[in-house]
From TrEMBL, chains A, B:
Keywords linked to the UniProt accession: FAD, Flavoprotein, Oxidoreductase
Required cofactor(s): FAD
Domain of life: Bacteria
Cited Pfam families: Acyl-CoA_dh_1, Acyl-CoA_dh_C, Acyl-CoA_dh_M, Acyl-CoA_dh_N
Source taxonomy: Bacteria, Pseudomonadati, Pseudomonadota, Gammaproteobacteria, Oceanospirillales
Domain Acyl-CoA dehydrogenase/oxidase C-terminal: 282-452
SUPFAM superfamilies associated with the record: Acyl-CoA dehydrogenase C-terminal domain-like, Acyl-CoA dehydrogenase NM domain-like
Protein name from the UniProt record: Acyl-CoA dehydrogenase C-terminal domain-containing protein
Domain Acyl-CoA dehydrogenase/oxidase N-terminal residue range list: 80-158
Family, per entry: Belongs to the acyl-CoA dehydrogenase family.
Acyl-CoA oxidase/dehydrogenase middle domain ranges (all copies): 163-271
Organism: Alcanivorax quisquiliarum
Ranges for domain Acetyl-CoA dehydrogenase-like C-terminal: 467-585
Amino acid sequence: MPSYKAPLDDMRFILHDVFHAEKLWASMPATAEVSRDLADAVLEEAGKMVEGVMLPLNRSGDEEGCTWSDTGVATPSGFKEAFQLMAENGWTALSGNPAYGGQGMPKMLAVLFEEMMHSGNTSLALYTLLSNGACLCLDAHASEQLKALYLPKIYAGEWSGTMCLTEPHSGTDLGILRTRAEPQDDGSFAITGTKIFITGGEHDFNDNIIHLVLAKLPDAPAGSKGISLFLVPKFLVDENGNVGERNGVSCGSIEHKMGIKGSATCVMNFDGAKGWLIGEANQGLACMFTMMNYERVSIGLQGLGLGEISYQNAVAYARDRLQGRAASGVQNPAGNADPIIVHGDVRRMLMTMRALNEGGRALSAYLGMQLDIAKFSDDAAARAQADDRVALLTPVAKAFFTDRGLETCITGQQVFGGHGYIREWGMEQFVRDARIAQIYEGTNGIQALDLAGRKVVRNGGASAAAFVAEVRNWLEGETHGVLESVRAPLKNALNLLEQGTATLLEQAGNDPDAVNALAVEYLDLFGLVTYAWLWARMMVASADRGDRFGASKQVVGRFYFERLLPRADVLLRQMQAGSAAMMALAADDF
Amino acid sequence: MPSYKAPLDDMRFILHDVFHAEKLWASMPATAEVSRDLADAVLEEAGKMVEGVMLPLNRSGDEEGCTWSDTGVATPSGFKEAFQLMAENGWTALSGNPAYGGQGMPKMLAVLFEEMMHSGNTSLALYTLLSNGACLCLDAHASEQLKALYLPKIYAGEWSGTMCLTEPHSGTDLGILRTRAEPQDDGSFAITGTKIFITGGEHDFNDNIIHLVLAKLPDAPAGSKGISLFLVPKFLVDENGNVGERNGVSCGSIEHKMGIKGSATCVMNFDGAKGWLIGEANQGLACMFTMMNYERVSIGLQGLGLGEISYQNAVAYARDRLQGRAASGVQNPAGNADPIIVHGDVRRMLMTMRALNEGGRALSAYLGMQLDIAKFSDDAAARAQADDRVALLTPVAKAFFTDRGLETCITGQQVFGGHGYIREWGMEQFVRDARIAQIYEGTNGIQALDLAGRKVVRNGGASAAAFVAEVRNWLEGETHGVLESVRAPLKNALNLLEQGTATLLEQAGNDPDAVNALAVEYLDLFGLVTYAWLWARMMVASADRGDRFGASKQVVGRFYFERLLPRADVLLRQMQAGSAAMMALAADDF
């Protein structure tokens, strides 16, 4: 069974040495009480909880899965108790709004906790993450009355939350959804329709489930401009928060999936269920999108967290498994073979995993920091800049973390040879669990389209240029000697990214298919260049530690620049090919 | 449930128009009776059998899996009857030696059949492929007596065959295996030991299972030079082929795996089991290796076959699923959305899958052709050249087919969005089933090491240079106009490959870790360049057809050169980085 230790050293290094988080927190009233010691204590306790409570249920949860019956959904043994323990200790409200009982911790800390949870038990983590998402949305858009009634209970884990978007015929294209909302005399709405792929739509953890549901009002405009958002509880709640009679919403079945089997993925039937409008009528998509940047980073972290536990176990196996002799000569004369960590091919796999994981962790913290600045800073210009950076880098993080997460989990499985394919070793579960993160919360193709279309072409590349300027600025201001070996490749990478942006803008001006056809390569280019910058920052921040941690960072950073960043070159060439060959065949010719 | 039609048009195109197989077959006595009509009829019947017999059991086989009890292994419902039907119709002996009841069809045809079987039901296919492998090995190395006794029964599907190599502590490194063979007075041997990961080690298909087992004689030299090969039947067989008493071999358990769940993966316990030596004592590995080139291509075809069925179903879904509107304007005014095949991102996925599948199919036929020449040609020089090409390209095919196979299956799953993650759609099964092919029959890292070390460095790059010369020769001899757009990139690709070989040779001369550290990138480079050549050949061979098939080939070929071949550039740069950063960390620093 896989083991896991929260990578606290690396997390502290990123928070304190790379990004000097404490200074930022001290500068903003909402986070002023978060000291370095408090942050470290939170991470340490989080690690203990994940290792002790979540991890032990990960394999059994996968084997057991969820079970549907007409009385509800049974989650795997132990999940309910684990959730309740997490709730009692405040882990379901870490970055929740303190005005309603949340812990008020910065997102920069929450992303590290979320990574840990996905390492330990991604199925169990999803229940809390969807509740967090619902809270974010309610906090931003619901009436004071709804917030006061629902937020404290969800933060406390007494109730849970879901997001109900997808319908059988309507996934990426929400504009064609069919769920209807009929206004009632009491100011509520009667919601009718079927939603699918609802994570945690039904379960046995607690007393109530609060669904946030996209639906159309009778007089709504066609398409995505006619979508409204409603709060629909499983059990109706009186004004004092007492749970009353059952609402007209039920779980019709659950999906049998490739992975995340401990997470109940539900078909939810709304049959005139009582709901309340959140935000303005016909502004439902906009309401959803205010939380999207948080949620997409969280789902990105699923890829990163699974990549991390896969890496840790691949290292342990590679140190332990004896097979063959090192090319440079016998390393383990006492045994009849050397540990496979001596072989270049195994090294290549481990170094690739590590370089991608640590680069991703740095980006997740950077993005968490930008989300915090955008939300909490007193400085309007700083908020605006952080908002711009969040908008630009969130689709990159979601797609690049999860694509690299699958790559990393596959690589970790490969280190195990045939044993990696056997369920009891657990490495194949990480692959199956990671795979969904490339699909849900907007497929990675949609993330790429969001980046290339909405975030770059729509503003003529201004946000991308501002980001490149930030990196150039950093590079010009840094004089540490360790940068000498990577300064030229980083400059070259920035040039590639600029050329990529120019290529995208130019082709988009002439060819309506160009954005769609170039987007994935552009996002990958963006991700690789961003990791390069963060690796350079990590190399500088660790250069003078004089310890093995610092020395290792230099080696892994060098590996990133030599072995992984070169992937960026090919992406520009692929983009330059344009959409012609891609779009030339008739549908019947496939 | 996924559908499948054998890609007969493409197979016939490759056989007849690209490689002019009929001319080759007519030139060799062993294949002289194989006409174009016969080959086409075999493929057509094979397609019907796969579509009608194998495919319908694929999903149910995955859901049901195999079950072990102390009386044996139960395979999924219908597998036994399907196998027997296949056997009755000669499909278990397609390329078997006619002297013992085989059909004697060329490998060039068998590879296409094997691809189909892996598309239709890779778990069921594995039982026949392992039997084929055992027959190849027996045919090449066993005594006349053993061949006469065992081959006809296995070809007929009355008995099955296995290969027993791996032990719990000994996988890649067979030199440290522990299974012992004690000589007995009657000339047989008593085999004792435990083998794991034995495909079809136990099942309920037929009357006997013939295990080919690697073991060590008492006086054997240490390491891989002390391994011998033995035939160990489940039931002892008298000299007339009658099945008698149970031998001392039994299945202790089966593995619970990520995929290929219909294939029984067995722990086999040999407890003084009676066995007979195959070939010379201490030459067991060499005996195994004579069949390795056939088997590795067959396992490569698992990746290709799964990629093909994933492609076919992704196309069907992309034509059917309505979501969003085309960037270039509404394509389906009658519906509230366009089929997703109009979107660039979906096109990118489908075109990538198709270009990789068709490139792989061409390489599989090319390799089959070389295997046939090496085995059947009257011309010693032609045999030697074909042998050289087989040795060089087999590891490329095995690893590149299966790496691209996983990529293709993941891509096909992605086309389905959330539905791709749901078991009933079947797309996720292809991913799970494809994953093992990168691991078994020598991991893809081992294939790369075989290519870079044994096949390139060991002969100073002579085989690689001969292959590049063949491609250059072809390119210089071809004058068709369609080559103009791809001549320069193909030349450039050949130069890259030459530089890759030179880099490998140079680094290998200075650094013992270099081969291991550069091998995977070198293999990928080799694969990409080889596909480029075959795509150029396909473009030429289809240029003047004047039909949609030919026009599509031009488009897909162009896509390959523009979008996929550029991946080759980065590989050389990665190789040039050498092993330093990769090998720098101490094992404890991971």
